[in-house]
Structures
1.
Amino acid sequence: MAKKPGAREDALPAIAEVFREYGYEGASLALIGARTGLGKGSLYHAFPGGKAEMAEAVLDAIGAWFEDKVYAPLRDDPDPRAAIRLMLSETDAYFRSGRRICLVGAFALTEGRDGFADRIGGYFRDWREALAQALLRAGRPEAEAESLAEDTILAIQGGLVLARALDDPAVFGRMLGRLEERLVS
Amino acid sequence: MAKKPGAREDALPAIAEVFREYGYEGASLALIGARTGLGKGSLYHAFPGGKAEMAEAVLDAIGAWFEDKVYAPLRDDPDPRAAIRLMLSETDAYFRSGRRICLVGAFALTEGRDGFADRIGGYFRDWREALAQALLRAGRPEAEAESLAEDTILAIQGGLVLARALDDPAVFGRMLGRLEERLVS
DNA sequence: GATCGTCTGTACCGATCGGTACAAACAGCA
DNA sequence: TGCTGTTTGTACCGATCGGTACAGACGATC
C-alpha cells in the first residue's frame, strides 16, 4: 500500500509539455527527466512501460480533461448555446490563445498509428459527437449539426497549425471569433 | 561540370514520403537510404548538408509545386472563380483525397522552428495571399476576402489532421465540398 | 587504352537512444 | 532502534543515431 498517489499525476503536465515541444520521437528520456526533475529510476518506477506508457498517460489525462470541461457540458447543459460558448472559451484558454499546440493533433499527424490511434480517434470522435448533439439541441437540423460540428473541430485544429506555422497566435483568435458567429448566431 | 542533373530531384519524392510517414526526427538515414535505393555515400554526395538539407530541399520542392499549380493561377487567371475551383481539385489530388498528410503542416506542429520556419511560414503566407487576391478579384470585399482565405487554408490543414486522426479520409472530401460552397457560391 | 573527376558502398566514429540492474537512501511502523 | 518495503540515483547495456573517411567503381573525354 501507501502507493505513489501523486508522483505519476504530478509529472504528467511536464511530460506533456516535452511531447508538445519535441514530438514523440524527439522527446528523449534525458529531456523528460530534466523537465520533470525525476531520474530514470523514478520515471521507470512510475511508468514501467517506459516512454509509450508516458504518452498513453498523457493522452488519457488530456482526454479526461476535455471530457470533464467540454464534452460533458455540451451533452448535459440544459442551455446548449451556453455550453458551446463555454467550449469556445475553454478551448481558447487551453490552447493559450493559439500559443500552444494540440498534442493529440500533432500525434495524429506524425505517429505511425502505434498504440495511440484509439485514443487519438476517440478524442476527436467524442468532441465531434458532443458538439453535434449540442447543436441539435440548440435547434439545428441533424445534417447541419453534424457538418457544422465537424467543421468546427477541424477549424480549431487547422487554426493551431496555421497559428504555429505563421508564428502568429492571432490567427487562432480570429478563427474562434468566426466560429462563434457560425455556431451561436 | 556534368553536374548531377537528376540524382537530387529524383530522390526528393521518396525522401518526402519518408518525412511524411515518420516525421523529421523519426526519418532515419537508414530509412531514407532504403526507400531511395541510395547508399549513404550517394545521399551525402547529393545533399552535403545531410538530413537538414534534405528537408529543406523537400520543402522547397513542395513550395515550388504549389506556386506553379495553385498560387500562380489564383493570382493570374483571368477567371478567379475557375482558379479557385482548380485550387480545390488540385488540393484534393495532391493530398490524395485525405489519405496523405501535409508535410509542411506536420513540420509546423513538431519541428522546433529550426531552419525551416521561414519556408513553412512562406508556404502558408503565399497561399493565403494568393487566395485572398483571387477572392477580391471575384468581387468580395477586402476584409471578407482575407478572412475567407484564412479560413480556407486553415480548414484544409484541419481537414487533413482530422481525416488522419479518425482514420477516415472522407472527412477531407466533405470539408472540400463545404469549402467550395463558401468560396464559389 | 590512359586519364581524370564524379559517384557510391563500406567501415567506422563518438554520441545518444530507450531500457535494465541494483544498491544505497528513505519512509512507515513497531 | 531495528525491520520492511518503496523510492531513487547511478552505472551500464546493446542498438542505433547522424555524420565522416576513403578506396574503389564508373563514365566521359582525348
2.
Amino acid sequence: MTAATTQQVFRAIADPARRSILDRLAREGATAALELGAGFHGSQPALSKHLRVLREAGLVRTRRDGRRVLYTLRPGPLADVERWISLYRQFWEGRLDALARHLDETP
Amino acid sequence: MTAATTQQVFRAIADPARRSILDRLAREGATAALELGAGFHGSQPALSKHLRVLREAGLVRTRRDGRRVLYTLRPGPLADVERWISLYRQFWEGRLDALARHLDETP
DNA sequence: TTTGTATATCACCAGATGGTTATGTATGCA
DNA sequence: TGCATACATAACCATCTGGTGATATACAAA
C-alpha cells in the first residue's frame, strides 16, 4: 500500500461526517465500524466509504475482532495539516512578525 | 453577507490551488488577482472562482486599486481549523494523557 | 452445515466541483 | 469618446463525491 499524500489528508478532513468519526475515535478509542455510525444519518455503505477514505489517508488503522472490525485513530498524518496551518497561527494571534509585516498594506 | 462557516473553511483549504494562493498571500502580502495566478496552470476564470471560494470562506479580503483588485490574507477563520486539529496534536507528539489513554487498546 | 451478524464492495444515481469559452463590468488612458 | 486592461460572472461540460440498495465476504453460533 502506497503512502498517503498530504492532499488525501486535507480532503479526508474536509467532510464533517469524517471529522465526526475522528472525534469519536479520539474520545472513545478503538471502536467497531457500525458503532461509529451511531449518530451518523446515512446507510452502512455510506459509513463504510467514509472509513475507507480515512483509511487511505492513513488516519485510522483497522484490526479484526471476531466478526467486528475495530477502528483506531492514527493521527500522524494530521501533523502535515498542523504544520501547514501553524504558519498562519502567528497571524490570527495578532503577533506582528516578519510575515505579518507584509500584510494589510492598506493606506 | 452571511458569516462564513467552519465547513466552508475546511472545504476552501482542501484544494491545493487554494492553499497555494493563501501561501502566496502570506509571503507576499496584498497581491493583485492576476498576479496570484502566476504558477497556477488554469484559465483566468478558474482562478477567479478559487478566489471567490476563499472570499466566501472569509479567508481573504479585497480592495480595489485602480483597475486591479488587491487580495489580502485574512487568516482568522483558520483558527477554527487550528482549534480542531490541536485536539489531536497531543497524539502525534507522543504524549499520553486522558485522551491518549483510550487509544490503541491492542492486546 | 445453516443461519445470523458485521463489514466491504458493486453498480448506479444526483448533485457538487473545477474546468472551459464567451461575455459583462469597472477602471485607466489616448 | 473609444479602446485596452483587470477582473467577475454566465453558461456549459466532464469528473468527482457522497448517497443508495443489492450483494459478497468473514466470522460466530446454532
